[in-house]
Amino acid sequence: MDPFRAVEKAMAMSPEVWARHANPLSGLTRMATAPVLILAIYARAWIGWWSLLPIAVVTAWIWVNTRIFPPPADHGHWMTRVVLGERWFLARHSVTLPDHHIAAAHWLTALSLLGLPPLVWGLWVLDPGWTVAGGALALLPKLWFCDRMVWLYQDQTGSVPGHPEPKPQLPPEETAQ
Questions:
Q1: In 44-127, which residue ranges form alpha helices assigned H by DSSP?
Q2: Cβ neighbours for 44, distance < 8 A, ≥ 6 positions apart
Q3: What does the alpha-carbon distance between residue 19 and residue 75 come to, in Å, rounded to a whole number?
Q4: pLDDT in tens, 102-154
Q5: How confident is the model at residue 174 (pLDDT cuts 50, 70, 90)?
Q6: 33-42 and 116-125 are packed helices; what angle lies between their axes, rounded to 10 degrees?
Q7: b/e code 13-24 from CB counts within 10 Å (16+ = b)
Q8: How far, in Å, CA of 66 to CA of 53, rounded?
Q9: pTM higher than 0.85
Q10: Residue 17 CA to chain centroid, in angstroms?
Q11: Rounded to whole angstroms, how far apart are CA atoms 177 and 141?
């Protein structure tokens, strides 16, 4: 099973939802959710069980975020290209992608996962050092992954980041839907 597709399925990412998620406001505010969720979990040290409220709000935001913004009018923004590159990456079983992009995505995801044990430990014992170190180790490779998705999109479409693009260029399986 493809874990990337499993996450897509769990989030119920239809073509319409993907189009909305391509709005830069969706991607940029979504990036902020991980540190906020980490803080909400850590907040149990200060507010006890009341920390479940901000945890629930952040978790709901993760779902709503991909659906609340309108599709972008222009697909030239860096964050929009992250989402479009992700769609190409998810189509890697049906389209030919450069091996270096696939390998980088897998390595960066594995690197990001290495941050989870120290992050979870830091949150469990309420140690700010472990929490910050684990959070950074989990989030920095994810940011690098995002940049790789922009590069992948550029390689697949010949587009130039930052240049206006009124219509996204999607993988063949996406355009058939």
A1: 44-47, 52-68, 78-90, 99-114, 116-125
A2: 51, 126
A3: 10
A4: 999 999 999 999 999 999 999 999 999 999 999 999 999 999 999 999 999 99
A5: low
A6: 30
A7: beeeebbbbbbb
A8: 21
A9: yes
A10: 14
A11: 32
pLDDT at residue 177 in the model: 47
Total length of the chain: 177
Crossing angle of helices 116-125 and 99-114, rounded to 10°: 20
- Phi first, then psi, for residue 2 (nearest 5°) are -85, 110
Residue 90 has, within 13 A of its CA and on its CB side, a CA count of 20
Identify the CA nearest to 142 among candidates 122, 160, 119. 119
CA separation for the pair 129, 111 (Å, rounded):
19
- CB proximity list for 4: less than 8 A, separation 6 or greater: 89, 90, 109
